[in-house]
Amino acid sequence: MDLAVAAVGGAGAAPQHQQIRDEVAEKCQKLFLDFLEEFQNSDGEVKYLRDAEELIRPERNTLIVSFADLEQFNQQLSTTIQEEFYRVYPYLCRATKTFARDHGNVPANKDFYVAFQDLPTRHKIRELTSAKIGSLLRISGQVVRTHPVHPELVSGTFLCLDCQTVIKDVEQQFKYTLPNICRNPVCANRRRFLLDTNKSRFVDFQKVRIQETQGELPRGSIPRSVEVILRAEAVESAQAGDKCDFTGSLIVVPDVSQLSTPGLLILVASRRPSRSCCELLS
């Protein structure tokens, strides 16, 4: 990975923490914003401008993008996004937020997501191997079970109980994640923190289980299944018995039983089952 590490702190002072810059992801963010700003439809209009204006509505937060448009605009960008989707996805969401704010009066603290559709290749559930972890892919299946919608803690703001320092933007990593250490250089607290729910960021998420359809099932085989996480606008969009296409990223979760607790980081999904962008868990 092409990473640049920059220390935070003044000259001669010990750095409080290190800020990791992912130059590849940042370049994808810039190019994806260029795509949203410049890609035109057959009438010569910016194709995604009207969709971005719809994000002003309180119930909307997901911009649906055709992957075919992205390939037409910049083949190298589309290849990088497809191969490094899990890595660059947060940066694509930042570009979407910038695009929405530039073309609408949206709240500064509102989060936005991007969901892709029209991927050229559809995979079967039994084709989900370790080689596909982290990449953008499209699978089909029949929903056999849905779970209730729960709030998910995406980014936490914590209060140090020793020195009262506020620690913002603590990314949650597959579990309820506390800060490693207080950011106050004279405080060594590593354990005593209080979550400020009013300043933390939450999103709706829902777990569904899908399995192979009868048409995809090899003769004499038992249907295989996979867990799918829907976020934001996608929740409550698929019901048991529905046959859907899902577009998202395959990841491995350390403990699936902790899925309904705060801190499990999953990616976004669109509201439309056939266009949804989601995480596929194995």
- Percent of sequence in beta strands: 25-35%
The count of strands amounts to 12
Return the structural class.
alpha+beta
Rg, nearest Å? 20 Å
Identify the quaternary structure here.
single chain
Q: Tell me the CATH topology of the largest domain.
A: OB fold (Dihydrolipoamide Acetyltransferase, E2P)
Task: Compile the SSE list and pairings.
Blueprint lengths: L2 E5 L10 E5 H16 L10 H6 L7 E5 H7 L1 H9 L1 H18 L10 E5 L18 E11 L3 E11 L5 E6 L21 E3 L5 E11 L13 E7 L11 E9 L25 E5 L1
Parallel strand pairs: 3-4, 11-12
Antiparallel strand pairs: 1-2, 5-9, 5-11, 6-7, 6-8, 6-9, 9-10, 10-12
Helix pairs in contact: 1-5, 3-4
Provide structural commentary.
The protein is an alpha+beta fold and 282 residues long. It has two domains: 17-117, mini-chromosome maintenance (MCM) complex, chain A, domain 1 (2-Layer Sandwich), CATH 3.30.1640; 125-150 and 202-281, Nucleic acid-binding proteins (OB fold (Dihydrolipoamide Acetyltransferase, E2P), Beta Barrel). It is built from five helices and twelve strands. It has helices at residues 23-38, 49-54, 67-73, 75-83, 85-102, and strands at residues 3-7, 18-22, 62-66, 113-117, 136-146, 150-160, 166-171, 193-195, 201-211, 225-231, 243-251, 277-281. Strand 6 (150-160) and strand 7 form a beta hairpin. Mean pLDDT is 83; it is low at 1-16 and 256-278.
Give the structure's gist in a few sentences:
The longest helix has 18 residues, at 85-102.
Give short descriptive properties of this protein.
282 residues, alpha+beta, five-stranded mixed beta barrel, two-stranded antiparallel ribbon, 5 helices, 20% helix, nucleotide-binding, DNA replication, MCM, nucleus, hydrolase
